Amino acid sequence: MNNIITSFSKNPFRALTEIAQSINSIKEIEPLLTKVMDIAVETVAAERGFLVLTEDGEFHLKAARNMSRESIADITEASSSIIKTAIEQNEPILTHDAQADPRFSGSESVIFQQISSAACVPLKYGDQPLGAIYLDSRLDREMFNEETLEFLLAFADQAAIAIENAHLFEHLREENLQLQSEVQRIYAFDEIIGKSAKMQEVFEIMTRVMSSNITVLLEGESGTGKELVARALHYNGHRKNKPFVAQFCGNLAESLLESELFGHKKGSFTGAICDKKGLFEYADGGTFFLDEISEISPQIQAKLLRVLQDGEIRRVGDTETRRVDVRIVSATNRNLREEVKNGLFREDLYYRLNVIQIKMPLLHERHGDIPLLTRFFLKKFAHKSGEKLKKLSRESLRAMERYHWPGNVRELENCLERAIVLSTGEEIQQEDLLIPKTEEGESGRKTLKEIEKEVVLKILEEEGGNKTRTAEVLGVSLRWLHYKLNEWNIAGKKNRTSAG
Ligand SMILES: Nc1ncnc2c1ncn2[C@@H]1O[C@H](COP(=O)(O)OP(=O)(O)O)[C@@H](O)[C@H]1O
Ligand SMILES: [Mg+2]
Fold it and tell me: Which of 191, 377, 409 has the most ligand 1 atoms within 8 A of CB, as the residue to mutate?
């Protein structure tokens, strides 16, 4: 100890500064209290000591030095009144003759009988009492003096600050852990809704790549869940305790995006008033999600290739290269291969990004998931607002299933959130959805092929499955009808067919 901390008798100020530095660097409460006791005992050459903290109006022993459990029990009993006085009256106590001191309640114990000097100083943070430090020495030791007490008071002030900080730090860490598990819950797989074959395919690939560092490219239109999948990959993989950093790459000035991603050196351009760390450095050890990757300029493409090939980045205007370890997940709503063909995107980068591709299905390609998604979002909104869970009327659900959702799941989510507000009763009505009505047979935004199929099947149904009559009504040849039914994979499944 004394080789670490300057002896307080030699240079009390220096000793205090060193002590402050030493204890302030300890963020965890237990090692901190142990250290505080070590310093207290050694600096004033006390023989033994302990530290108590007040919790719910009572004091609890937290750390001890050179004392057995029995003697601590004995001493705390004997000295409980001086500890109380120290804490409650915020008053330091020093005694040279413990046995004769009326502040000690008097103890029969041998341990107590031998005490020559004892000191007790309160630990307080502002006006708030935190506890106390107790020190003593037995007969054969040098006695404490006023200087000892002065030092102990100054030391207790430092220690109290460090203790309060450690408490705060512990509290923050707990809060952080709680938030982290919350985040992990939100991005659990079962928060990604879909039972359709197309979503099952997505889940299957996700499961395979989840715990690897493999680079993933997510292709799909806006609102199909690309970012959701990227986060789920991160929070279910082994990088989950490191950062997930997302950067949108569309519509950003090249220089701005470049300095965001890679950082810059002070003075490398007007406005670069100090060195700046790039997002790749922040994401070190974690996952980097690059959204709208097709939008990045050739220069940034080249820098990104470097990250993928060598794990190296260079801040704008800097000569030094830095190593980063990031898993890259990128997303695009374009066909990136087409962009390569058209010379808009580097082929080598494309292959590096597209090691594994996950194609996100359009919502209207998985109509069957709409009831599930709807229930999921209605529950989520009810939970969020604390209001009663609303239901969808049958017509509303049918309308949702018929609508083609150009904005995909995002549009569906927004539509329901709005509908909850607009609806007056317990059920959400079709008008609350504010989506264009698509009556059966009416075109809506369907393709010609879809309308054709709908009309043909409707007539077939009306004609009780009689193909000959259906063909007549439609004014087409029977051959044409067979051909179409075959194409839709219906011919063999219908059993109520006519002889025709
Ligand atoms: N399969 C899904 N299950 C539940 N919510 C989804 C699903 N897909 C998308 N979402 C939700 O839809 C919104 C848009 O998803 P997002 O991942 O941002 O799409 P993208 O990145 O493809 O534009 C988000 O609120 C997301 O939580
Ligand atoms: Mg997105």
Answer: 409
Q: pLDDT for 138-159, tens place per residue?
A: 766 667 888 888 889 999 999 9
**Ligand 2 midpoint to CA 293 (Å):** 11
Query: Domains of the chain (ranges plus CATH)?
Result: 12-170 (3.30.450.40), 189-359 (3.40.50.300), 363-433 (1.10.8.60), 448-487 (1.10.10.60)
Q: Output the CA angle 285-287-288, nearest 5 degrees.
A: 120
Please spell the DSSP secondary structure of 189-212, one letter per residue.
GGGS---SHHHHHHHHHHHHHTTS
CA of 341 to the centre of ligand 2 (A): 24
| Helix 29-43 / helix 146-186 crossing angle, nearest 10 deg | 170
| Other beta carbons less than 10 A from residue 74's beta carbon | 18
Residue 2 tokens, joined: 């004394």
Per-residue pLDDT tens over the stretch 291-340:
999 999 999 999 999 999 999 999 999 999 999 999 999 999 999 999 99
Ligand 1 mutation target, pool 228, 366, 411, most atoms within 8 A of CB: 228
For residue 264, give both structure tokens. Answer: 């810059």
Kindly give the distance from the C-alpha atom of residue 281 to the centroid of ligand 1, in angstroms, as a whole number. 27
**Atom 27 of ligand 1: nearest residue by CA position:** 228
* Cα(412) to centroid(ligand 1), Å: 10
Amino acid 325: pLDDT: 97
Cα 60 from Cα 130, distance rounded (Å)? 11
Q: Which atom of ligand 1 is nearest to the CA of 194?
A: 1
User: DSSP code of 427?
Assistant: E
pLDDT tens digit string along 373-413?
A: 999 999 999 999 898 999 999 999 999 999 999 999 999 99
Other beta carbons less than 10 A from residue 425's beta carbon: 10
- pLDDT tens-digit profile of 67-105? 877 777 777 776 777 788 888 888 898 887 776 777 766
Substitution candidate for ligand 1 out of 291, 408, 410, 416 with most atoms within 8 A of CB: 410
Q: Which ligand lies nearest the alpha carbon of 410?
A: 1
Identify the CA nearest to 289 among candidates 215, 222, 348: 215
Nearest ligand to the C-alpha atom of residue 249: 2
